[in-house]
Design a protein that fits this description.
By secondary structure, this protein is of the alpha/beta class. It has 35 helices and 20 strands. It has a seven-stranded parallel beta sheet, with helices on both faces. The chain has a seven-stranded parallel beta sheet with strand order 16-17-15-18-19-14-20, with helices on both faces. A four-stranded antiparallel beta sheet has the order 8-11-10-9.
Length: about 900
């Protein structure tokens, strides 16, 4: 362990923050794999930021000093060799040592050149002058950012109607499959600098779940003294960064990527544009391609982002101002940046990592909000394809082949036919009517045998699809011949259904008056199916199929295929389940100097140690663990395991009991009493949206909600993410208004928020101070044990990790979700709140031991409502007096 390090913190850190930063520093210094737990509200992100940057600065300083020292020693040694009588040996040693000096000097030059480059950029006034309106806008001000958006919105509309990245008219020659040459590089790879040109100076890759969490981390860096001499860049997808209006309109991530790459080609000679009104206008050769893809301006914006810390939104605003692509500016800055901020998908998915030019070798990886990392890796690498996507893909592939087969290269036609056969087999398996249960699990080996595609080598076919740009070509084909395709598909399908004679009859008697007559129900059904297929992007459908086929190339033991059949073949689907997340994490562990996974609720550490690090090939000795308490004193938190309700009934919210009138009535009585005594905001978490709806309707029909609303205004968590901010804003305004005695003329003392465990409000949001004086969790939110996916995962863990690993995993899914809800309330040292766990099962010893340690130290187990209610009253009376 290194000696105590001095960290530059924005304020005097708490002891637990000092311990966290020191442990992090030691872990990075020794190149270990760290599992770090720091409760939500203890400044975890700031501690990660200061600890890691301090280590990086010290490490670089030591490296530079060490390199200079080694060079000096070698030079002295060469002089000594010159005095050696054996001149042959001396000359040989001199050559070898000069080679070493050259190697060390190159490394030292990289350190110095990066520092000199950044310093020159900071001194260059013309970088700042790129933003013509820099004096007009303050990019650290949210109000100025919004003002800029309003000022430029009109310009964006005008640009859209001119030639900003407009879509080319599709020629048939553009739709022919590209010839696949084995040595050919992917388009994406061509845009990435060669690895040899990449800077070898150590970097930190900081990863979190959402862009808002990443922006929060960037803002934490801005608060520190490190911000003036550290280069930070935020990587994100084209969907987040693209400022080309014509590309932004595309809903699919895949199509956005393909359109971006196509526009960069600048197809000369046939450039035309399609304006918003659908009219096609001619476009000059000069304007073809994306106008934002300008190397000079990209370089300038890259330089600006290196000397001034910007999050994704800041860089988008700056890119719009100078009409330069933020996506490629951010990617170009990776080489010189010291900290690269990336979302989960970018870091954890290997092909996405490579596409973004991310080289983890000897670098640091820090993954924040990692409590669900294992499930996240599984989700990122899962693949699902439904019947309507398979049918769309196979039908359009056949029409595409028949249209252009005479123009395809023989090898392309052969491979296209093989793809059509395989997709047809997959769809055919969904259509098979059997007496099997609706859900079935296959091993990968069983699946390819059952689908009768075991004779095909899928890897070359997947390479063919990707390198020939099959999805893009098929999308363009559908764009050009969409109406003809729909008509042809309808004709083919109705013939198969025995309705061709009926259609012929309609055609023969097709007078103008008949055109407005309603069609037969059978035809309506067929048309509805065609419309449903047409609504699905053809490019998306084939890309989804390719992703699923890629999953079939995994090792047989690492995954399973779930087949779910429904009444509709189109809605039935296959899903690839990744059971071994370590297989996708192993390269990160092997390449990185150090990997840190951190979160507010990381217990049990054994889950990460065994299933992630050790399974990825790491030695036990390389793993370090750290857990700290909370900054709040014990008297500021009152956690209660409530086992009995107001009427004396045992609180048992198991799946069989929770819907009974007795339990629903108890919830109503508890909420009514709590809302009468707790000031400010009360947040109540339910196991699911369906159960929240059931409870709400029951309390509403029994007039209990009317009684609650005398004291608290009731809000409900929306299912749609778009409405979350609005609901939270109204919730917080209500509480602030109630606290202001001059504005509050009613008896209302605050608000009640009905939320869902694992929903929009259970992670990443703060209910600090009056926004969350009480958090209730109704029942224990165990996942559905009958789920085929969960059963297969538990079975895999039992067979491959330990006999108890499956059951432990099941318990952890529940308690980690509960712990996330608990962490919403107390957010700083002077905050205070009560946490009420409604279920007698919370008083069990094994359950209590899985709760956060800072909760355990003050926990009141097996409480009856009378005594608990009295404790809650005293708790808030005490804190009211202390204010």
């Amino acid at each position: 362990m290194s000696s105590s390090v001095s960290f530059s913190f924005p304020f005097e850190p708490y002891d637990i923050q000092k311990a966290f930063m020191q442990q992090l520093y030691d872990c990075l210094e020794s190149g270990k794999l760290g599992i770090f737990e720091s409760p939500t509200g203890t400044g975890k992100s700031l501690s990660l930021c200061c600890g890691a940057i301090q280590w990086l600065n010290d490490h670089n300083a030591k490296e530079k000093a060490s390199l200079a020292d080694e060079i000096e020693k070698l030079k002295i040694s060469i002089k000594d060799d010159c005095e050696d009588d054996d001149w042959v040996s001396g000359e040989y040693n001199k050559i070898q040592k000069n080679l070493q000096i050259t190697t060390f000097q190159k490394k030292l030059d990289k350190f110095n050149s990066r520092t000199e480059k950044i310093e020159k950029l900071r001194q260059r006034k013309n970088v700042k002058q790129l933003n013509k309106n820099s004096a007009k806008y303050n990019w650290s001000s949210q109000k100025d950012i919004e003002k800029f958006k309003k000022d430029t919105s009109k310009t964006d509309v005008e640009d859209t109607n001119e030639d900003l990245g407009a879509v080319d008219i599709i020629e048939d020659s553009d739709l022919i499959l590209d010839e696949v040459i084995p040595s050919e590089f992917d388009e994406e790879d061509e845009l990435i600098d060669e690895q040899d040109n990449q800077d070898s100076v150590t970097k930190i890759f900081f990863c979190s779940r959402t862009h808002s969490q990443l922006s929060q981390f960037v803002n934490e860096i801005k608060k520190t003294s490190y911000h003036s001499n550290i280069s930070v860049i935020s990587l994100a997808s084209r969907q987040q960064y693209c400022i080309n209006p014509s590309v932004q309109r595309l809903k699919s991530q895949h199509l956005i990527n393909e359109q971006c790459l196509d526009l960069q080609k600048g197809k000369n000679g046939k450039a035309t544009s399609r304006a918003d009104d659908g009219k096609v206008t001619k476009r000059s050769k000069k304007s073809s391609g994306c106008p934002y893809y300008n190397h000079t301006n990209i370089e300038h914006l890259k330089d600006e982002s290196l000397i001034e810390i910007k999050d994704v939104e800041d860089l988008v605003v700056a890119g719009k101002e100078v009409k330069t692509c933020p996506y490629y500016s951010a990617r170009a800055a990776v080489t010189d940046a010291q900290i690269i901020v990336v979302p989960y998908q970018t870091l954890l998915h290997e092909s996405t990592r490579k596409a973004n030019g991310i080289d983890l070798k000897n670098n640091i990886v820090i993954i924040d909000e990692a409590h669900n990392l294992l499930d996240t890796i599984g989700h990122i690498h899962s693949a699902e394809v439904c019947g309507v996507q398979l049918k769309t893909a196979v039908d359009k592939l056949k029409l595409y082949r028949d249209k252009y087969k005479s123009r395809f290269a023989a090898k392309n036609l052969l491979q296209l036919n093989q793809v059509i056969y395989i997709v047809g087999k997959l769809f055919g398996l969904l259509k098979m009517t059997t007496d099997n249960p609706p859900s079935k699990i296959f091993t990968l080996e069983e699946f390819v045998l059952t689908a009768e595609i075991d004779n095909y080598n899928l890897r070359p076919l997947i390479d063919f699809c990707l390198k020939s740009k099959l999805a893009q070509k098929l999308h363009g084909f559908s764009e050009k011949y969409g109406s003809q395709i729909s008509e042809e598909t309808l004709k083919t399908d109705t013939k198969k259904a025995g309705l061709q004679d009926f259609l012929n009859q309609i055609s023969k008697s097709g007078s103008k008056s008949n055109k407005n007559k309603p069609e037969m129900p059978a035809v309506d059904a067929e048309k509805e199916l065609i419309e449903k297929e047409t609504r699905i992007s053809v490019g998306n459908a084939i890309q989804t199929v390719i992703n699923f086929l890629t999953s079939l190339t995994s090792k047989y033991d690492d995954g399973r295929i779930l087949l779910v059949k429904t009444k509709s073949v189109e809605d039935s689907f296959y899903k690839f389940l990744l059971l071994n997340p370590a297989v996708q994490f192993s390269n990160i562990v092997k390449e990185s100097r150090s990997v840190i996974v951190a979160g507010g609720t990381m217990q049990p550490f054994s889950e990460f140690r065994d299933q992630l690090f050790i399974s990825a090939g790491a030695a036990f000795e390389r793993i370090a663990e750290f857990s700290c308490g909370h900054v709040i004193p014990p008297e500021n938190i009152l956690p209660i395991c409530l086992s009995e309700g107001p009427s004396g009934k045992k609180l048992n919210f198991t799946y069989e009991m929770r819907n009974t009138p007795e339990m629903l009535n108890e919830i109503g009585r508890i909420l009514m009493n709590i809302c009468n005594i707790v000031p400010g905001g009360v947040v109540c978490f339910f196991p699911s949206y369906d159960y929240e709806k059931l409870v709400y309707n029951h309390l509403q029909s029994n007039k209990i909600l009317d009684k609650i609303q005398i004291k608290k205004k009731i809000f409900r968590e929306p299912k749609s993410s778009t409405n979350v901010d609005q609901i939270l804003d109204e919730y917080s305004k209500t509480i602030r208004r109630c606290k202001n005695k001059e504005l509050n003329q009613s008896k209302i003392t605050g608000a009640l928020m009905l939320s869902v465990v694992g929903g929009k409000l259970s992670e990443g949001l703060n209910f600090s101070d009056d926004l969350g004086r009480c958090v209730l969790v109704v029942g224990m939110p165990y996942p559905n044990i009958k789920s085929a996916e969960l059963q297969e995962k538990m079975k895999y863990l039992k067979e491959n990790v330990s006999t108890t690993a499956g059951q432990v995993h099941y318990e952890n899914l529940c308690l980690k979700a509960v712990n996330q809800c608990i962490g919403r309330a107390v957010r700083h040292a002077k905050d205070y709140a009560t946490v009420i766990l409604l279920d007698e099962r919370y008083s069990r010893e094994n359950v209590q031991s899985s709760l956060p340690k800072w909760i355990q130290r003050s926990l009141v187990p097996n409480a009856k409502f009378g005594s608990a209610f009295g404790s809650i009253g005293k708790f808030f009376s005490m804190h009211k007096k202390s204010q």
